[in-house]
Amino acid sequence: MEGQALLEFLVELAREAGVHVRAIPRSAAEVDPAPRSGICRIRGSPWLLLASGEPLEDRIEAAAAAVRTHAPGALEGRYLPPAVRDRLNSPRERRG
């Protein structure tokens, strides 16, 4: 599964689990410090923020972390493509 398809699949899983998803436009990268993708809570609800200016790998890991954190029960008994299951079972180190 290619990177963009993996990201889209993970984002859809996060949405199904009740995570709100927002893309941070590339123009926001002009601020210092540049925004990073990640998970937060706003008024008690989980949000996944994806910074368009960040590398695809960092956005994929943020989406996978959102699914691991907020949807573990929703994954039981569900078919997941091997690339998705691998990413959910093996978190990658984020660059810092």
In words, what does this structure look like?
The chain has 96 residues and is α+β, with helices and mostly antiparallel strands. The protein has one domain. Helices cover 39% and strands 18% of the residues. It is built from three helices and three strands; from the N terminus they run H-E-E-E-H-H. The chain has helices at residues 3-16, 56-70, 82-89; strands at 20-24, 38-42, 45-51. Strands 1-3-2 form a three-stranded mixed β-sheet. Strand 2 (38-42) and strand 3 (45-51) form a beta hairpin. The protein is globular, with a radius of gyration of 13 Å. The model has no long low-confidence stretch (mean pLDDT 87).
List the keywords.
globular; about 100 residues; 3 helices; single chain
**Main sheet characteristics:** 3 strands, mixed
Terminal residue distance = 26 Å
| Strand order of the biggest β-sheet | 1-3-2
Roughly what fraction of the amino acids lie in strands?
Answer: 15-25%
How many β-strands, per DSSP? 3
Question: Could you outline the blueprint of secondary structure elements for this entry?
Answer:
Blueprint: H1 3-16, E1 20-24, E2 38-42, E3 45-51, H2 56-70, H3 82-89
Question: Quick gist of this model?
Answer:
By secondary structure, this protein is α+β, with helices and mostly antiparallel strands. The protein has helices spanning 3-16, 56-70, 82-89, and strands at residues 20-24, 38-42, 45-51. The protein has one domain.
